[in-house]
Amino acid sequence: MKEPTSLTGKKLGNDANPARIFTMTIDNRLLTAREDETVLSVARQNGIYIPTLCHMEGLSLRGACRLCIVDVKGAPRVLPSCVTLARQDMEVVTNSDRVIEYRRKILELIFSERNHVCSVCVSNGHCDLQALATELGMTHVRYDYLYPKQLVDASHPRFSVDHNRCVLCMRCVRVCDEIEGAHTWDIMGRGITSRVITDLNQPWGSSETCTGCGKCVQVCPTGALSEKGKSVAEMTKRRQFLPYLQMMRGEGRK
Amino acid sequence: MTLSIEDLEGIARIEKDKRESFTYQINVCVAAGCLSCQSGVLKEAFEKEVSRRGWENWCSVKGVGCLGLCAAGPLISIQPDGTYYRGVGAPDVSEILESLGGAPIPRLDCASSRPFFEQQPKIVLENSGRIDPERIEDYIAEDGYKALYNALRMMRPSEVIEQVLASGLRGRGGAGFPTGVKWTAVAKASNGNKFVVCNADEGDPGAFMDRSILESDPHRVIEGMAVAAYAVGANTGFIYVRAEYPLAVQRVRTAISQARHLGVLGNNVFNSQFSFDINVRLGAGAFVCGEETALIASIEGRGGRPRPRPPFPAEFGLWGQPTLINNVETFANIPPIIRKGGKWFATIGTEKSKGTKVFALAGRVNNTGLIEVPMGTTLREIVFQIGGGIPGDRAFKAVQTGGPSGGCIPEQFLDMAVDYESLASVGSIMGSGGLIVMDDTSCMVDVAHFFMEFCMSESCGKCVPCRVGTSQIYHLLNRITKGEGKLSDLDMLEDLSDLLKNTSLCGLGQTAPNPIMSTLRYFRDEYVAHIEEKRCPAEACKIHEAREAV
Amino acid sequence: MPTEDKRWRLVNRTMRLHGNQPHALIETLHSVQEYFGFLDPDALKYVANSLRVPLSVVYGVATFYSYFTLQPPGEHTCVVCKGTACYISGASGILGSIAKKVGIAPGETTPDGKVSLLTARCLGSCGLAPAVVLDGQVCGKMTPTAVLDRMEVWRNEETSERVPLRGEVDEP
């Protein structure tokens, strides 16, 4: 019932199935890569910046925000680097004009979808989305703002969710399912009317499955999920737990 | 006890003898289109009247699958005369029975639609309208399950795939990927329990080929799937069919249980090592589930959201196992290919697109219905000869193919031979086979608006370009159809279309701009009229109404 | 089982047929909707617990697919096909006139609970465009007047005995 955990469809890197190592180029730099690594991970290991939003180290791959797109020689269209495997002699360009232009447009679409007014947001200054806008040089949004009316749910004793700030990256859904094991969060509906929900679309405070661990709040890239009592720009997120928890839970499952 | 070829031939013999004992056969269409015009009542009336007259021994009444000309239902055909009657009602029954052996009744005759019935060399639909879809014996009498026997007892799996490769058959679901290549990939996948899936989630608005095939000749699809399962080494199959097609679901279920009962599904089919069974899964109203990975998610009981490929379903499909997914029409092509050979199939069609294609012809055309034509037939032949032209002799404007992923093709390409490549070259796609004719009363901006509304509400919402992009395009088109657009909106439309095409996760988002791009390319003047003159040339949009209300 | 209602046994049967596995979720929701007409929170909870699927996943699936409904349907249903062929043959005119005269939009039920209006993506009856399904019966080549007339009849009739859903009464 799960998405593939490995892009190769099989586990590599053990003695029975050793992973091959080869060379490829990213932005004209000759680099070595393993066959089970993604373009994004090779780039990051070598200090090459590719913007991401839905991707999070320690959670399953999703390939949905499309901000990590890159140009690959020979591919018919741009490819999302977070779910594209490295290949021998692959030639990747992370900063071609069209890639930069597409990324900026996609980011503008995200900003046009819901209400992302930074000045009144608890995450102002500590927001992944805001940081991306700065990094990609997004100065204005050329599309009309859609701004559907969304609710704020503050029924949980310690946390609150403001759907106006949600970018549907599903980090909360994944961390709750894959790390905490509660699967309190999921997405309802489809398309532009999608929304994250707890249990049977009930107030978070009345959820029977939520353990109150707060991991969802910490991984949320924006101010959609926040701790109560935080005022504008006070909500900083702590994510250091993720690699350790993933490792320890993996150990436990053996 | 397993079935032998003698048993199969015995069933066919008995069935054929029975058929030959009748001087006349009255075939009443009982596919969904005609059923909704009361053809079920009509069939009963025929049966009653025949038995009242005591004609049972020489005149048979049979419910058959789709006769094609759905607009004129209920349809009946009388064999061996080859007479087709349209719009038949229960009061006409006596008159028709009286006329047997004489001249056809002019009032009901389909004489004017002759080209519709005669210009179609049928492969996929060869049994549609001729056999009773609810009786396996009738299918066996038409060489049914022979292909499966030949494959299992006389060919190695690799030889089956060779025939499919040689036939040049390409996926009929829309993208046109070579079927044999897909089969090879699944056959090569080494590990696990493989699956064969039949995609019958025909979600394109304006397409009903798959529904009709399943309602008219379900055993053909089952046989095609069984042959595929043998070729790739699978033991379990799934038919994923829309819940909106209750009749097709019922006929498929009936056919599966008959096939199990007879032994063409189950363990050691035809006394071979091959075992295979098929399950039915119902879709629940999501167009995106036509996409392979979304379809897999849906069979697994999850929301139908596509995931990035690779890994492809051929390696990592249903429950992580190698999975072959083909469309209904693709599987329906398999039995004749195995029976007559891939080379025979490759003689039909164009250089790169082999065989025939079933189209659902609808919209502003006289002979609405289901047609099958060789690849390479021109649009003009389809619309004006088989289709019988446009009602009221209005002016032809465009043909829309490929549903919400396709485009509108204007008059200047009417003489183009239809195949995968030619359609792509004019900005449309083959798609699953919906073919909607539009005349001068259809507004192209409104059509684009309609399709974008469809894509917006069918987008699964996973990737940003499709989720927000379709909404933004819809928003712009909404403005234009209300007469509130700006010329710069057209640039914005082109810009967003390019973004969706290149950056969306799955085929839905990547092809969603096609209706916009093709109408902008060929009918830009209509957009400009909406914006600059605040007028809809076809008078379909509500601009004038909106202005009158002010 | 949530209640003593016998229909739950039929739902249980569907789940058992699939070995009470999580992948039976959609098939089970189909059967709940077939027997009860819609999916209410108790039903969703029961299915979630029986198949061991998280509550949020069940709700997500029930709202992802447009075939499922969480609202009880009206006594009568009118489904207008919005396929391409029906659209260019005037389906929007039918919807427009219903909105004007009866005052309900697709997905809504009249305040008296008599009529629910729904739309379908494509019924596959394109040859009969525009097609409308009135209480389960496909009617081809419809006009706004014909549909409105039928709705008028429905709304004026005495509250009729509701037609029982499949499985609600013992079949002979």
* Strand-pairing-aware structural class of chain B: alpha/beta
What low-confidence regions of chain C span 5 or more consecutive residues with pLDDT below 50?
A: none
CATH class of the largest domain in chain B: Alpha Beta
Helix content of chain B: 40-55%
Helix content of chain C: 40-55%
What would your notes on this structure say?
The complex is a heterotrimer of chains A (254), B (550) and C (172). By secondary structure, chain A is an alpha+beta fold. Chain A has helices at 39-45, 97-113, 128-135, 171-180, 215-219, 241-253; strands at 21-26, 29-34, 69-72, 79-80, 91-93, 152-153, 159-162, 185-188, 195-198, 225-227. The longest helix of chain A has 17 residues, at 97-113. Chain A starts with 20 loop residues before the first strand and ends with a helix. Chain B is α/β, with parallel strands linked by helices and 550 residues long. Chain B has 4 domains: 20-64 and 76-109, Glutaredoxin; 136-346, 3-Layer(aba) Sandwich (Rossmann fold), CATH 3.40.50.11540; 356-439, Ubiquitin-like (UB roll) (Roll), CATH 3.10.20; 444-549, NADH-ubiquinone oxidoreductase 51kDa subunit, iron-sulphur binding domain (de novo design (two linked rop proteins)). Chain B has 24 helices and 13 strands. In chain B, strands 10-9-13-11-12 form a 5-stranded mixed sheet. A 4-stranded mixed sheet of chain B has the order 2-1-3-4, with helices on one face. A 4-stranded parallel sheet of chain B has the order 7-6-5-8, sandwiched between helices. In chain B, α12 links the parallel β6 and β7 (277-282). The termini of chain B are far apart. The mean pLDDT of chain C is 87. With 172 residues, chain C is α+β, with helices and mostly antiparallel strands. Chain C is built from 7 helices and 4 strands. Chain C has 2 domains: 7-64; 76-156, Glutaredoxin (3-Layer(aba) Sandwich). Chains in contact: A-B, A-C, B-C. Chains B and C meet through α2, β9, β13 and α18 of B and α2, α4, α5 and β4 of C.
